[in-house]
């Protein structure tokens, strides 16, 4: 009886009498009525929703004759009931019965399907029905039907159309989530399309933790998490605990002041569930940030999430750089560009930590015990006179001191993405720069700009303004080594690029105190052999994945209380 919407005593008796071995035992009816897997009322019963799918599996294995007899009994018993019941039972029977007998019921199944498709279309119309009472009854009917059939009819498009309409009209009905059997991608696809756009997923300040979507750049304690490509009016979200099915709930992000609150349990020190977000293009898993042993202090400010490393009294701050998409290189219209800056789209699927400054002489000295720099008047000056090979020795030793740090050099794409900080101009500061913003050779300004100071040396880190993501001296001061070998840019879109497998030189970015304005642009590139040192060559640390990994599971880090390394 797992295909029955309701089972009355008379229907139960009819079926009992058809049994070969139990037809004469009237006590079977009482045993069935009192079964723990049935929900009973005064006049009818039904298999409990939590148990019905197992019984439907058994129905599918019944002899063909018994399957056919069940349908005939249902039609007789429920002939005078609302047609929704008859249509629901027809569709469930058609999905479970043997294919040899379902073909004869095709016309009845299609009429049943048409009934529910018409109901979905009615609910989807903005002006129908006019009566609130009728609307309430129709929504109730649709909601009950979707939950009752979802585990069996999850491939039926009309089921998703009904669920979409319910979510729009009475979202509170979905507070406990969609039926877990529904495919989230199919549910989203059934929604009416909207113009595709890419928005930034952000976490609001820790005082009132919540997620929001915005076109604008984050600030004032709001931390960027990920870029979402959206072409439907809703995002599905769910909490995932161990061994539990996902019960997705729609988040209609287009609503004014719409945000997704993060529950208080995230502030609990015990392990918290994973927050799963599903768009038509992405499936993101967001986890609470559990600070690693190396993190001395962490928090949020107007630039977003940060974590401080402290070693022998020296503090290095790292900024969380969210995954995203950007145009790498320079447009052909950009003044003073070079031919090796072919513009192309880059997608970074993994977020990463990046030092907010170049490595200082103080930090180098704390790790290596010596200082190779030329400009030693201030230990807060960036370390220079270090080659790519020498930097690898530093990184290896640092990772030996702090095993879970996973320090490395950034890839060239990661470096430019962070330098640009969502800007598309030649500099993160705009179309031009001054020597009050960047330490470069002011005798050679960019694009006929105003001349400025030529300091002829490095300056201490954080002496000059940060870019929009809180990173200092990405332009000028010292050239910064990257992990990649130097190579020709692709002409098509790429994901997580790491450069060629081999070359004679490594990538160097950012320009230095020695260079003119055109060389310190966001897109500006240079190269250096791995063993070469100079007094304008330094580096900046990145942390985490290798920079070459792809992200198969769509995992993302969530800022603040829900960030993950």
Secondary structure elements and pairings:
Elements: H1 9-18, H2 27-33, E1 38-40, E2 45-47, H3 49-59, H4 64-77, H5 83-96, H6 99-102, H7 106-124, H8 132-149, H9 157-169, H10 184-189, E3 197-203, E4 210-214, E5 223-230, E6 235-240, E7 249-251, E8 260-261, E9 274-278, E10 283-287, E11 295-301, E12 304-311, E13 314-321, E14 324-328, E15 344-348, E16 352-355, H11 361-368, H12 388-401, E17 407-408, H13 412-420, E18 479-485, E19 494-495, E20 506-509, E21 525-528, E22 537-539, E23 542-543, E24 555-557
Parallel strand pairs: 10-24, 15-19, 18-22
Antiparallel strand pairs: 1-2, 3-4, 3-5, 4-8, 6-7, 6-9, 9-10, 11-12, 12-13, 13-16, 14-15, 16-23, 17-23, 18-20, 20-21
Walkthrough of the structure:
- A hairpin with a 6-residue loop joins strand 3 (197-203) and strand 4 (210-214).
- The protein is an alpha+beta fold.
- The chain has three domains: 9-182, no CATH class; 197-288, no CATH class; 295-543, paralog of FGE (formylglycine-generating enzyme).
- The chain has helices spanning 9-18, 27-33, 49-59, 64-77, 83-96, 99-102, 106-124, 132-149, 157-169, 184-189, 361-368, 388-401, 412-420; strands spanning 38-40, 45-47, 197-203, 210-214, 223-230, 235-240, 249-251, 260-261, 274-278, 283-287, 295-301, 304-311, 314-321, 324-328, 344-348, 352-355, 407-408, 479-485, 494-495, 506-509, 525-528, 537-539, 542-543, 555-557.
- A six-stranded antiparallel sheet has the order 11-12-13-16-23-17.
- The protein contains 13 helices and 24 strands.
């Amino acid at each position: 009886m797992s295909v029955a919407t309701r089972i009355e005593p008379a229907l139960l008796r009819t079926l009992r009498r058809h049994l070969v071995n139990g037809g004469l035992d009237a006590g079977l009816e009482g045993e069935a009525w009192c079964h723990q897997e049935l929900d009973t009322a005064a006049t009818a019963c039904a298999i409990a929703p939590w148990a019905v799918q197992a019984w439907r599996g058994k129905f599918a294995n019944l002899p063909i004759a018994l399957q056919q007899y069940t349908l005939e009994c249902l039609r007789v018993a429920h002939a005078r009931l609302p047609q929704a019941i008859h249509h629901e039972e027809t569709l469930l029977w058609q999905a479970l019965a043997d294919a040899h007998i379902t073909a004869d019921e095709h016309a009845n199944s299609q009429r049943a399907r048409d009934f529910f498709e018409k109901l979905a279309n009615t609910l989807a119309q903005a002006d129908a029905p006019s009566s609130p009472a009728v609307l309430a009854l129709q929504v109730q009917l649709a909601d009950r039907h979707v939950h009752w059939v979802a585990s069996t009819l999850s491939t039926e498009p009309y089921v998703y159309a009904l669920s979409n309409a319910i979510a729009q009209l009475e979202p509170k009905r979905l507070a406990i989530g969609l039926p877990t059997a529904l495919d989230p991608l199919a549910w989203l696809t059934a929604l009416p399309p909207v113009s595709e756009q890419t928005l930034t997923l952000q976490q609001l300040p820790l005082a009132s933790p919540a997620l929001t979507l915005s076109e604008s750049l984050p600030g004032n304690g709001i931390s960027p998490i990920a870029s979402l490509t959206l072409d439907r009016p809703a995002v599905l979200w769910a909490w995932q605990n161990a061994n539990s099915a996902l019960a997705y709930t729609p988040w209609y992000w287009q609503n004014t002041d719409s945000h997704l609150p993060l529950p208080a349990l995230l502030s609990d020190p015990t392990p918290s569930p994973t927050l799963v977000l599903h768009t038509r293009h992405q499936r993101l898993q967001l986890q609470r940030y559990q600070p690693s042993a190396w993190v001395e202090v962490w928090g949020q400010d107007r630039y977003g999430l940060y974590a401080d490393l402290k070693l022998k009294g020296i503090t290095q701050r790292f900024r969380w750089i969210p995954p995203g998409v950007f145009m790498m290189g320079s447009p052909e219209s950009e003044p003073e560009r070079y031919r090796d800056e072919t513009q192309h789209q880059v997608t970074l699927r993994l977020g990463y930590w990046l030092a907010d400054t170049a490595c200082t002489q103080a930090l180098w000295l704390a790790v290596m015990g010596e200082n190779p720099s030329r400009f030693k008047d201030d230990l807060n000056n960036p370390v220079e006179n270090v080659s790519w090979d020498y930097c690898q020795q530093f990184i290896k030793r640092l990772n030996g001191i702090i095993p879970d740090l996973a320090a490395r050099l950034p890839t060239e794409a990661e470096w430019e993405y962070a330098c640009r900080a969502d800007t598309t101009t030649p500099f993160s500061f705009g179309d031009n720069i001054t020597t009050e913003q960047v330490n470069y050779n002011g005798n050679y300004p960019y694009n006929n700009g105003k001349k400025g100071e030529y300091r002829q040396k490095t300056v201490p880190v954080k002496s000059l303004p940060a870019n929009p993501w809180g990173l200092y001296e990405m332009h000028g001061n010292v050239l910064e080594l990257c992990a990649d070998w130097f190579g020709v840019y692709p002409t098509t879109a790429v994901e997580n690029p790491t450069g060629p497998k081999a070359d004679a030189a490594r990538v160097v970015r950012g320009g230095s105190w020695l260079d003119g304005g055109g060389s310190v642009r966001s897109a500006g590139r240079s190269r250096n052999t791995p063993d070469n040192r100079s007094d304008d060559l330094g580096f900046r640390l990145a942390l985490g994945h290798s920079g070459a990994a792809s992200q198969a599971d769509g995992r993302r880090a969530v800022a603040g209380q829900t960030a993950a390394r």
